[in-house]
Amino acid sequence: MPIVKTRLALNPLKKDDELVIFADDPNFQSEFDRFCYLADISLILKTEKMDGDDRVQIYHVKVLK
After folding, report:
1. Could you say which of 13, 30, 35, 43 is the most buried, measured as most Cβ atoms within 10 Å of its Cβ?
2. What are phi and psi for residue 52, nearest 5 degrees?
């Protein structure tokens, strides 16, 4: 479901727009790498932080097309 939500958030964006994604699903990274390639978006920055006991991954991506 996180990839579907990401796709929906990207739909209205134009070339060079940026999107910030917060993910706590441990499988998101592997799915997201493939998604970036297929959706023609570039990962600008990935960071992680702890939110209580959960690790949250923060992705900054840029639309290429």
Report:
1. 35
2. 70, -125
Q: Tokens in use for 4? A: 């579907």
Percent helix, strand and coil across the chain, each to the nearest 5: 30, 40, 25
CA distances to 15, 24, 26, 33, 44 from 29, in Å: 23, 10, 7, 6, 14
- Burial (CB < 10 A; 0-12, 13-18, 19+), residue 57, is middle
Whole-prediction pTM = 0.79
Q: Is 23 exposed, middle or buried (0-12, 13-18, 19+ CB in 10 A)?
A: buried
Q: Quick one: tokens of 55?
A: 């690790």
CB atoms within 10 A of CB 61: 24
